[in-house]
Amino acid sequence: MLSLNQAKTVIAAGEAKATVIGVPVIVAVLDAGAHLKAFSRMDGAVLGSIDIALRKARTAVLFETSSEAVWDYCKPGAPAHALEFSNGGLAPFAGGIPLRDTAGAMIGAVGVSGGAVAQDLEIAEAAVAALGV
Amino acid sequence: MLSLNQAKTVIAAGEAKATVIGVPVIVAVLDAGAHLKAFSRMDGAVLGSIDIALRKARTAVLFETSSEAVWDYCKPGAPAHALEFSNGGLAPFAGGIPLRDTAGAMIGAVGVSGGAVAQDLEIAEAAVAALGV
Amino acid sequence: MLSLNQAKTVIAAGEAKATVIGVPVIVAVLDAGAHLKAFSRMDGAVLGSIDIALRKARTAVLFETSSEAVWDYCKPGAPAHALEFSNGGLAPFAGGIPLRDTAGAMIGAVGVSGGAVAQDLEIAEAAVAALGV
Amino acid sequence: MLSLNQAKTVIAAGEAKATVIGVPVIVAVLDAGAHLKAFSRMDGAVLGSIDIALRKARTAVLFETSSEAVWDYCKPGAPAHALEFSNGGLAPFAGGIPLRDTAGAMIGAVGVSGGAVAQDLEIAEAAVAALGV
Known about the structure:
homotetramer, alpha+beta
């Protein structure tokens, strides 16, 4: 089970990486049931990214994979057309990554939004890495 | 009219096929009014598939056809652009199949999600076949 | 973590009690994250009870208590006026009960609707008792 | 304008008071536009309080007053019957308090939920006091 300490560690690492890159982002952490555990919006991040960060994390929890991996199932020509409209709307692009415990079980996910997609991904990866598993 | 015994037969057959294939899925059964009759989530199925299984079954009931058949109406170049956004959002890909009585009248639908789309379809077909009509 | 076998045991016990009483009900089982695990609608249960059974179980999970206990917080004169409108709408009356493991941790909840409230409660209690914890 | 540092100060003070009281709570901080700035769910807080903490803070921002003050307008006998159903649903009970800058301008609000209403209020007051204005 994801602890608040773990969630804060994830957020701090994400903010640190975002500061290095120089882009203000939102970092959202959900538990394994997709319920909000911790959230932080850096000064200067656009309002539209609040929902996107939450949605990326939610996408990662719901499918137990990175948010962009979901796109492989619903992109044009793939078999699950319109999958992205399920579950209240997914965010099938980079920046959402599952959090796992040392046994590999998913304990939640982080979602990052505010920069370019590649930046969001880099920040999310740094955030996840801070868990040290 | 779909009975609970029929719905349980459909779910048991779907679960049996999923076990043979080795993929945990969700099997949802709706009645002819698109109201939930029975539902089962196998251990290990991802949370995101709950909504998708329900949505596939709903798509099948609403149009009295397999869920993927709806895609023919709304795919790029087809006349009903954005049809998939009607009715609260359809799931126009395989895994939803109408249930019929011996006279051919639709009495509900089954929706399966959790595996690859081809697996979901195979499981849904096994589930429907268990009705023996 | 709630298993599908446990959920089916809960539902079977609820249905057995409802059959003894002679009232068709809906029995819904959610996991600890309030996600649907299993569901069964007995023949003859009214459609309006689908949502109520789900909502009772959801109320029990969200507050880790029986659904009717929530009414103590929001009834006229109590301090949390309009609490029942939070979380998409609660069902603060009897029929929703948490499910616990042998260590006492909440692993989900059952919600029953279809009969008189006292009947729903009796059926929910029988359903929970079947877990044997 | 509310800074992330201020929001974190508010949350830390709320968590510290909750720890002293011995009740796990959720502390949500919104900006003056009612958009989420920071959020923290202490281990053990019930899931139902996520929405309530957010809703209390939202109620405080929307009416620039404490959440329970809104009850005076909508309680039985008051002139604004059903006011609590506006704005997607208010939480007109204690635990939501506006945040103000040194000039007295509202810069956001804090919402606390998880304990008894009186505890939530005490925690929210400690959280607001940490801003030192």
